């Protein structure tokens, strides 16, 4: 006997259903005619049981059944509209006409006490009356209403999959018998190896995210796969505890806004389902809130809509709190509010309000009317206390951003007894902020109530992987010529040393490098080349993130010019275009060239719609902050990143291209998104993707301070400080009072120094404690002292004018000495060993007499660890035998080497060369220890000083050899004092080291030019 769907997955679905509480009745045994959709005997039984007044009013009961059947037949005129109408009826929200003309709501399903319903699973259900009879594999009935249709296929035919089952539902069954799907909650398609669910009229596609998998956020997608995932999905999805909550609260309909759109039914994905129910449960349990940490792009806005709908519709919530809740949805930007409101509105969200301004918001919240309010966090500023109700639920989108700090405090103060739920794709945990502590419930594991990881989202097909392509933007800098040119400028302008240092420091900024016209041209040329080669052929669009507003404009112009130069056109011959989106202030000092990019919300929306259309020539959008987060454009295939970012902002930025997308013209789907990194963020991207962990160890938390004791100290210090101004009226805000205060702390006096030091300390405590109630009586005196402090702070306006006068010249000097700007593609962050790298590994192995066997291509990723472990093993043996400091020195070098970031081939080779040097020193140390050669051991214990000694000895007159150690000590000391991490790439750092080296040599009467200086400097630069 061969395997068939009936003998495998179909039979399993029936068995799993019976275990979940469904009664199995074969289709041919149902009490229904093959033309009927509703099993009327079961529906009538439920109607009378749930509406006792109809027992004595059979005619009204028949009218209910008649109206239900009419609504089912109306599916022939439009399935989605009929399904929406019947969803309202099945929820109990519809009033049916009685025999005497009244309209009364009727319960058709008991959503509270599930045992009051009849759950039947039927197989081989036949429907007739159209072209030809059709037979459904498995149908799940509740009180006679077919709520789920499952189509199965055989698991043993390679050419057959769940897609074939989905096509049967969409192309055949729903087309020929739409009435059978009028009461449908969702459909299921499976061949036993994969299971997908979808609403009616969902177009099947192998990569469809609408035909969605089901599962649990507790499962590892790498472990629960294949038939095991199918069983897990079926047991979780096809049970009354899942189907009925979806029907009651979580089915939504998006209505067409114009003739180009159609009505669409949409359903929650399983992470949204779990989180929406968890929010509802926490509200009923009167918990303070919770944190939802779901991967970027997995539908957090829809999740909030589902959660709001469930809370507003639930009688248990109304009973618990004595009234229907108010749900506040908070976003941190106006465009996100607009997007969220649009989504809620099209989903048919009841009682929706979007306040125009803060006064409108405050009025809404002071009332007790239940509704959904969608607003920005900024409208809570200066709100004060608004409402004490405990049935206010706050759902915060992008919970990691401006919801912390003063704005976050403001909305918590406005509705202090509300429940606060934060949804984020990028939780933050650092010394200043913790999304976990702000929203997390301590009862939840790791302070997270719902976690949906990037790995789960990608495995489910809800988001796509993102590939990061590294770029190196190199250039040569004529340092000496630049120094000379800068000195000439300083002489011409009569600058003193302080002014030179100020100008140099101001110009030594990343913006100076990024704004070099040659660099802009090289990067934008590479962007266009990459886009036309890899992205444009797929019909996808590009986003470019630039450092600041001026560079946004520069990049937009350069990219547009490059597109015109290459005649880069759309398939219809129109030239590709570049758009700009950035915040432009409507202020007097806003540069004229910025004003043309000042967009109204409607203009920005229009640009967004253009960008999302595959046939629109708007191919690039250049931004600096806007659209980096909260922007959902599945057509975006690549993000070109040339702006430093980190952690949460970086993660949100690089996930812009991760949305699934299908080209409506070619049918080709996006396999992955791309990020092309011009700024060198590989390591930061790795940290951002890994994400933070909630700190659960109290020992790692911030120091705990007794606030009352600190407030007491504040009062004591304030009183002591006020003694400086005895008899001065601190309530007087006049100029005379200020003059009196200045007389008590004259410039340059001990009193002024005492005041500044004491006030800065006082200010720190105030900022920490405010708004502690103990501070309130002293607020006026503190603010008076703060004004005194501000009045005596030095105001160096000359430096600002200096930059305004000479900044452009200085920047132009630097750009003029940056040559050979070139962009080159970097290797993957996964380290690869080329021939040179393997040769170095062999040399290390020869030094240490290690085996090189087994280092195959598959194991190359571990070779670095093997090298370090091998050297350390050799060191450990010697450390146990010897007290020599050489081994401590070598061990420290190993630790530094282990911490070195390896991100590309060049770094790999540098790492191996350093490892080879250490291996050679280990062997030399062993030999010197065996031979008692103390001089060699001393040199190896401090290899830098050893080489410096050799350089100085070789370039010092014979009579001075006795003071060589003193000279080396001096050089070593001053370099350690002056140098800092990254000094070699900083002009000011390089100058400081050169200057101190010359000073040291001069002190000993040695030449400050020539071989001694050159060799010493080169060695210091290489090794310090």
TrEMBL record:
GO MF annotations, alphabetized: ATP binding; DNA binding; type I site-specific deoxyribonuclease activity
Subunit details: The type I restriction/modification system is composed of three polypeptides R, M and S.
Alphabetic keyword roster: ATP-binding, DNA-binding, Endonuclease, Hydrolase, Nuclease, Nucleotide-binding, Restriction system
Family recorded in the similarity comment: Belongs to the HsdR family.
InterPro entries to which the protein is assigned, alphabetical: Helicase_ATP-bd (IPR014001), HsdR_RecA-like_helicase_dom_2 (IPR055180), P-loop_NTPase (IPR027417), Restrct_endonuc_type1_HsdR_N (IPR007409), Restrct_endonuc_typeI_HsdR (IPR004473), SWI2_SNF2 (IPR040980), Type-I_R_enzyme_R_subunit (IPR051268)
PROSITE patterns listed in its UniProt record: HELICASE_ATP_BIND_1
Domain of life: Bacteria
Helicase ATP-binding domain residues: 281-445
GO biological process terms on file: DNA restriction-modification system
Purpose of the protein: Subunit R is required for both nuclease and ATPase activities, but not for modification.
Protein name: Type I restriction enzyme endonuclease subunit
